[in-house]
Write a structure and sequence with these properties.
Radius of gyration of chain A: 20 Å
Number of helices of chain A: 15
Distance between the termini of chain A: 72 Å
Distance between the termini of chain B: 54 Å
Largest sheet of chain A: none
Largest interface: A-B, 42 and 37 residues
Helix content of chain B: 25-40%
Structural class of chain A: mainly alpha
Shape of chain B: elongated
Strand content of chain B: 25-35%
Number of strands of chain A: 0
Order of helices and strands of chain B: HHEEEEEEEH
Helix content of chain A: 55-70%
Structural class of chain B: alpha+beta
Strand order of the largest sheet of chain B: 1-2-3-4
Oligomer: heterodimer
Chain lengths: ~300, ~130
């Protein structure tokens, strides 16, 4: 059976990304609402996006070679029909959910993903603030089941590209809410704003790429609460716009923690594989600790304690 | 996509967008209009170590924060605030208009403070380097 040609959709979408950013920017300027733009922040996002494209050109062969090698050992061959492509897209989105969840819960993967969350702004340029080091996380391994099931590697990569394109438009404050039926099934700007929040109650939620149903299924869905506006960025925000520092800061932090003297092997492994914020001496806080702390603070407030 | 198409598209896209943002200037840089504003921002970011004393720099773009556990800086990064409690010793370098604080922190390596008054500059320096 001949392999159909799947276009390089992400690179083809670049002019569309630029056009939508221009529209969002002009909209915000004219309306005076719907988000914020700051030159150096946006430039950092755009340069990180360009670096991601460069990393894809330089290192993309690793994933491609791995998937095509694995393809020799497939259990089935599902072919190339539209229905198979649709099934592949849905299952690849499930794969994305778990990669993304691991990206927030395992520091090794977070070191790569953190730069996507490093802006305190939430606009369409934030969507382009992508990793340069994704290959080193080895998250390509989560594509193994799809290949072994008989989805062709080119189809899987095409589905991943479409998934990434879908996620571009949800990085905006211009759109408040989509129709209720859409919000129930699909990932939307509202759901994804929550995901980018640094407020303790919003941490580690809404990992979905396209279908928000995965978060509802696996218990990680948190709706946007108008009573608690989302504050974007990291728990400890960066004091630099330098793209090199943004791209590599967590890797440097991780290795300096792992290599510090006087640790056991178990502690060194935990610095790499435990959730971000884990420390051997309890001097830092994980997202679970931050949530617990926030819960206690809120409980101590009079209105929560029934005092007023 | 051929590199000959992709590369100019990415470069021109970035340059065009940067130019447009510079022209439109949709969001002004953050200024701390009063010590209370800075205090509120610090306290929201450090609920376990609230500010006891707050002093603004002359540009109102940075604040020296004193807490029960030590000192820190709150400063504007474009339109947004960044707060740091310094765990390791900072080095302050005097300039004509103020201080450059070298933090030794890879994620916030250098902070520029506008402090034209030499006495104020020295006081900030002592507090920051005394950590």
């Amino acid at each position: 059976m001949m392999t159909p040609h799947y276009p390089d959709v992400v690179n083809m979408a670049v002019p569309g990304f630029v056009a939508l950013i221009v529209i969002e920017l002009v909209w915000i300027k004219l309306k005076g609402r719907g988000g914020r733009y700051e030159l150096r922040d946006a430039l950092t996002s755009l340069l990180l996006g360009a670096g991601n494209v460069a990393a894809g050109i330089l290192l993309g062969f690793v994933t491609v070679t791995f998937l095509y090698t694995l393809w020799q050992y497939r259990l089935f061959d599902l072919g190339y029909s539209v229905w198979v492509l649709l099934l592949c897209f849905v299952l690849d989105d499930l794969r994305y959910y778990w990669v993304h969840r691991l990206g927030h819960r395992v520091r090794w993967v977070w070191a790569s993903h953190v730069n996507h969350h490093s802006s305190q702004h939430y606009n369409l340029t934030t969507a382009l603030r992508q990793t340069w080091t994704g290959t080193f996380t080895l998250m390509m391994l989560l594509r193994v089941p799809l290949v072994l099931l008989g989805f062709h590697p080119a189809m899987i990569l095409f589905s991943g590209g479409m998934n990434l394109i879908y996620q571009f438009w949800i990085h905006t404050e211009v759109i408040s809410r989509m129709p209720r039926w859409f919000e129930a099934v699909m990932n939307t700007p509202s759901h994804h704003r929550v995901h980018h929040g640094r407020n303790p109650r919003y941490l580690d939620s809404n990992y979905a790429g396209v279908f928000i149903v995965w978060d509802k299924l696996f218990g990680t869905f948190v709706p946007e609460d108008s009573a608690e506006p989302v504050e974007y960025g990291l728990v400890k925000n960066l004091g630099t716009f330098n793209p090199l520092r943004v791209a590599f800061h967590e890797w440097i932090g991780l290795f300096s923690d792992v290599l510090q003297p006087g640790l056991t092997l178990r502690q060194r492994l935990a610095y790499a594989l435990a959730p971000p914020g884990w420390s051997h001496d309890g001097s830092r806080m994980t997202s679970d600790m931050l949530k617990a702390c926030d819960g206690s603070l809120k409980a101590a407030e009079p209105q929560h304690a029934g005092g007023s | 996509m051929p590199l000959g198409v992709l590369l100019p598209m990415v470069v021109l896209g970035i340059m065009g967008l940067a130019l447009l943002i510079r022209v439109l200037r949709p969001t002004p840089p953050l200024r701390f209009s009063s010590p209370e504003v800075a205090r509120n921002i610090w306290d929201r970011r450090n609920p376990d170590d609230p500010a006891c004393d707050v002093q603004l720099d002359a540009a109102e773009s940075a604040a020296l924060i004193t807490t029960r556990t030590g000192a820190g800086l709150l400063w504007s990064m474009g339109a947004d605030p960044v707060a740091r409690r310094f765990q390791s010793r900072c080095v302050c370098v005097e300039t004509r208009t103020g201080l450059v604080v070298k933090t030794g922190d890879f994620t916030a390596p250098k902070i520029r403070l506008v402090l034209p008054d030499r006495d104020v500059r020295r006081r900030w320096c002592q507090i920051l380097e005394g950590q």
